[in-house]
Amino acid sequence: MLTNDNVSAFVHASAELHYEASSTHLLSLPNYHIGGCVFPLLAVVAGGHVVIVDRFTPASVLDTIEKFRITHINLVPTMINMVIEEQEKRARDVSSMQLVVYGAAPVTASTVERAQRVLGVSLLQEYASTECITITALGPDEHTKDRLKSVGRPFPGVEIQIREVGTGELLPTGRAGEICVRSEQCTQGYWRRPEETLGLNASDGYIRTGDLGFLDADDYLYLTGRVKDMIVTGGENIYPAEVEAVLAQHDQVSDVAVVGVPDERWGELVVAFVVAADGSQLVADELLAWSHSKLAGYRRPRQVVFVDALPRNLTGKIERRVLRESSRPDGVTV
């Protein structure tokens, strides 16, 4: 349940997005997505305009930008890359664009460079949730190689604590745990679902996000996964994002997702689903051997599955449940 006050708090905290009466926002995300719900309001409140496309395609987005002189748009990284590729094929006049706001997944330094070169536009990342709207932001000037590993610093008016999963103990800087948030943007709970609301609310008005992460000394937040996706193997907690970040460094890995699958001996096994780079001859044994020099023993993948593409939802997030349910397909190396 999001109230007018929750949404108003988001609008008033969003000054750095620089919406004005001359702004025109392009809505191409689903309206049921939190980004599709609240971002158009920034243009409306500023006295600007909103243009809606009935369904996202890279061509329709670029054509609409050119026709209506769009200044702002919010996308997910997969969409950004698709728009860049379409612009490289057939250029439109996108000189009106001022800012692309993205979320749901990180972008690479390569995507930042291409967006600036091909689209001539800056990127701003927001880490958000339906329950708390915007939690952190990473501004255009912070899109450096090191900072891109984070999701930015707390949004104005937002307080963040990292707490031990299960106990709620407050954790120090650098320690990963559940991200808990307190702000005027946060919901009071779920409509007619008291048990889920009870699980959502932590102490002192904080909301449990269900996300895992840690804060560094400069208050930049780093995501390490979801509580429900945390892998427990041999009594050790493993955060998929940490393993994925290492495997993604291999020059023949195009995309990767790590999940835990049930195992009688260890509780769960670390399994890596890998999309190999075009033309790659990478095999599972080679990647497993390479990972041994990069990861502590309990964090190393015990199995590798090569897939053509990772399953993603409409906002670009990996559907780990689909990967887990595929269990032990042919081609897994242990």
Automatic annotation (TrEMBL):
<keyword id="KW-0436">Ligase</keyword>
<dbReference type="GO" id="GO:0006631">
    <property type="term" value="P:fatty acid metabolic process"/>
</dbReference>
<feature type="domain" description="AMP-binding enzyme C-terminal">
    <location>
        <begin position="242"/>
        <end position="317"/>
    </location>
</feature>
<comment type="similarity">
    <text>Belongs to the ATP-dependent AMP-binding enzyme family.</text>
</comment>
<dbReference type="Pfam" id="PF00501">
    <property type="entry name" value="AMP-binding"/>
</dbReference>
<dbReference type="InterPro" id="IPR025110">
    <property type="entry name" value="AMP-bd_C"/>
</dbReference>
<dbReference type="GO" id="GO:0031956">
    <property type="term" value="F:medium-chain fatty acid-CoA ligase activity"/>
</dbReference>
<dbReference type="Pfam" id="PF13193">
    <property type="entry name" value="AMP-binding_C"/>
</dbReference>
<dbReference type="InterPro" id="IPR000873">
    <property type="entry name" value="AMP-dep_synth/lig_dom"/>
</dbReference>
<dbReference type="InterPro" id="IPR042099">
    <property type="entry name" value="ANL_N_sf"/>
</dbReference>
<feature type="domain" description="AMP-dependent synthetase/ligase">
    <location>
        <begin position="1"/>
        <end position="191"/>
    </location>
</feature>
<dbReference type="InterPro" id="IPR045851">
    <property type="entry name" value="AMP-bd_C_sf"/>
</dbReference>
<protein>
    <submittedName>
        <fullName>O-succinylbenzoic acid--CoA ligase</fullName>
    </submittedName>
</protein>
